[in-house]
Write a structure and sequence with these properties.
Layout: H1 6-15, H2 21-31, E1 42-43, H3 48-62, H4 67-80, E2 87-88, H5 89-99
Helix pairs in contact: 1-5, 2-5, 3-4, 4-5
Length: about 110
C-alpha cells in the first residue's frame, strides 16, 4: 500500500496521540475511492442519514457492533469531535473503533 494514509495521521493523532498506523492504513484502504471526494471524506454529525449509514455499515459490518453499541459509539465520537467543523471520516472511524474497544478487529 502506498503512503497515502500518512496525510490522515496528524488528524487522527490530534485525538488519539498513540494511534496505530496499521489501523489507519486499514481504514484508508476500507474507505478507498470514497476518500477522493471531499464531501465523502468528511462526516456530518448533523446528518442523521449519514450517521445511520455509519452505524449500519462500518460499525455493524466491519466492527461487529450491535445497534445500541454502534449508536452510542457514533454519538460519543460526535461529541469528541464537536469542535471540529471538518470531521475527517478516517479519524471518525478510528475513534469509533477506539471508543468501542474494537480496534483489534482492524489490526
Amino acid at each position: 500500500m502506498s503512503d497515502k494514509y500518512l496525510k490522515y495521521m496528524d488528524d487522527v493523532r490530534k485525538y488519539a496521540p498513540d494511534a496505530d498506523e496499521n489501523v489507519v492504513k486499514k481504514i484508508v484502504s476500507y474507505l478507498g475511492i470514497a476518500l477522493q471526494s471531499r464531501d465523502a471524506s468528511l462526516v456530518s454529525c448533523s446528518d442523521d442519514s449519514e450517521l445511520e449509514r455509519i452505524r449500519s455499515g462500518f460499525a455493524a459490518k466491519k466492527l461487529g457492533l450491535s445497534e445500541d453499541d454502534a449508536a452510542a459509539g457514533v454519538q460519543s465520537v460526535c461529541e469528541t469531535m464537536k469542535e471540529d467543523r471538518q470531521k475527517s471520516r478516517v479519524t471518525f472511524y478510528y475513534l469509533l473503533a477506539e471508543k468501542t474497544g474494537t480496534l483489534s478487529k482492524l489490526a
